[in-house]
Amino acid sequence: MQDDTGPQGPDEADAGTALAPTAALTSPENPWPLALLSKNLKAYIDRAPAAWVEGQIIELNRRANASYITLRDVDAEISLSLTVWGTVMNRLELPLERGARVVAHIKPDFWMKTGRLSMQTRDIRPVGLGDLLARIERLRQALTAEGLFSTARKRRLPLLPGRIGLITGRNSDAMKDVMRNAALRWPAVEFEVREVAVQGVNAVAEVTRALAALDAMPEVDVIVIARGGGSLEDLLPFSNEDLIRAVAAAQTPVVSAIGHEADRPLLDEVADLRASTPTDAAKRIVPDIGEELARISAARSQLRRIMELTLGRESERLRHIRSRPVLSAPETMLATRADDISRLRDRAFSAMRAEVRRDADRIAYLRAQVLALSPQKTLDRGYAVVQLGDGSVVREAAAVNPGTPLRIRVAAGELGATATDPRPQD
Q1: 24-28, 258-262, 312-316, 351-355: which has the minimum mean pLDDT?
Q2: Domain OB-fold nucleic acid binding: where (predicted)?
Q3: In this predicted structure, what is the pLDDT of residue 361?
Q4: What burial class does residue 206 get, using C-beta atoms within 10 Å of its C-beta: 0-12 exposed, 13-18 middle, 19+ buried?
């Protein structure tokens, strides 16, 4: 930090001491005078621009010419003391009260004599209901344009969650409503409860941490964020952008059960399911055991009726099939086939016998022809066959020399002879 006019004052110049040009170069042997540090601090702070801030009044002390206000951030445990002069307070139409939400135009001021930093308030304005609604609406439009409220992003809730994560106020009626009504509908339901602040400056941080913790538990199938009704200011944490983005990033389905039917914080838009009340949330996250038993009974009755109709229809079909002649007297079909087989067998035998007879006649005829042409038949008519000793047949008399032994074959037997007088044919 360095003074615009230089680190030396008149006294330092008279003493002839060379002071460090910046605060970082000071040392125990060459320190700055306290006045120089204060002057540099004031010069530095005076250059800081004024800024508009928003917060909630937690302390308000009125004096004759000035009021002292402690302003706390609406989402964090950070406070700041403001000094508001009477001229600024007199411009207000209505006096400020503790708990009011305001925006203030402040400028830091450093009082050199005492080294005290104060926030001088140049203007202060209460934040009305219309301003809050307009701010929420602008945020709604921005998040809608990003697609955070799209129905395509919303996940279906499980039919019967094994364990339900519940984020709610400490010992609140909303917690009791959710747990009691859920147990009435499904007695075996289990909860993983996180009790947090559901309004005030700690609400957003605590709800976000609880959401992250439950989302990291694999046994938690659905997360319910529940709170009873309240004013718009009380429900503002559930329209906080950080919380909305945390819910959008969660992997576990989230149910919003904030306030009453008319309350619509932005959490309702980003949640996978909006319940109008905590009681409605209990009815929508678990089924009713009585209704489920009734459905099972109705399904069993319908199944039994369908089975009886099917069995009756199939029994009728069997009776109809059994009444047919082929099934009422199945031996008729066998007897008919046996008759067909006998008839075909007889026809086969008859055809074979006829063929055998025809072939026997044909063989007899051929045999007769063969016999008729046989040399034996010729011999039977009185002819004889003359053969030489070697068995060759004598066809010409000139071929036989006198004295040649001959064999003469007649119809019955043979005779031996000797050629005596061969006579050739003229």
Answers
A1: 258-262
A2: 37-125
A3: 92
A4: middle
CA-to-CA distance for 239 and 264, rounded, in angstroms? Answer: 9
Architecture of the 10-127 domain = Beta Barrel (2.40)
What DSSP string describes 324-361? SHHHHSHHHHHHHHHHHHHHHHHHHHHHHHHHHHHHHH
Encoded tokens for 111 = 């009082």
Confidence band of 305 (pLDDT split at 50, 70, 90): very high
Picking from 158, 155, 151, 154, the residue whose alpha carbon sits closest to that of residue 285 is: 158
Q: Which helix (H) or strand (E) holds 108?
A: strand 101-111
Which CATH number is 133-287's, of 3.40.190.10, 3.40.50.261, 3.50.30.10, 3.40.50.300? Answer: 3.40.50.261
Residue 384 and residue 363: Cα distance in Å, rounded? 29
Segment 181-200 mean pLDDT = 91
pLDDT at residue 367 greater than cutoff 70: yes
Q: Which residues pair with 192 in a beta bridge?
A: 165
H-run or E-run covering 317: helix 289-322
Checking if the pLDDT of 162 tops 90, the result is no
| Cβ–Cβ < 8 Å for 197, 246 | no
**Which distant-in-sequence residues (6+ apart) come within 8 Å of 205 by Cβ?**
75, 76
Q: What are phi and psi of 182, to 5 degrees?
A: -65, -40
Place of tokens 């609140």: 172
Region 42-58: mean pLDDT is 89
Strand duo 405-410 + 413-418: pairing: antiparallel
Please tell me the distance from the alpha carbon of residue 398 to that of residue 303, in angstroms, as a whole number: 121
Residue 362 CB neighbours (<10 A): 10
Q: Is 58 helix (H, G, I), strand (E, B) or coil?
A: strand
Task: Judge whether 294 and 167 are in contact, CB under 8 Å.
Answer: no
| Per-residue confidence (pLDDT) for residue 108, from 0 to 100 | 93
Half-sphere exposure of 123 (CA within 13 A, CB side): 7
Lowest mean pLDDT: which of 6-10, 91-95, 360-364, 413-417?
A: 6-10
Q: Please name the amino acid found at residue 116.
A: R
Q: Where are the beta strands (DSSP E) in 112-157?
A: 116-126
pLDDT > 90 in the chain, percent:
42
> What residue type is assigned to position 341 of the chain?
I
Please measure the distance between the N-terminal and C-terminal CA atoms of the chain and give it in whole angstroms: 178
Residue 203 scores a pLDDT above 70 = yes
**Would you list the domain boundaries of the chain?**
10-127, 133-287, 377-418
Q: Which residues pair with 123 in a beta bridge?
A: 105
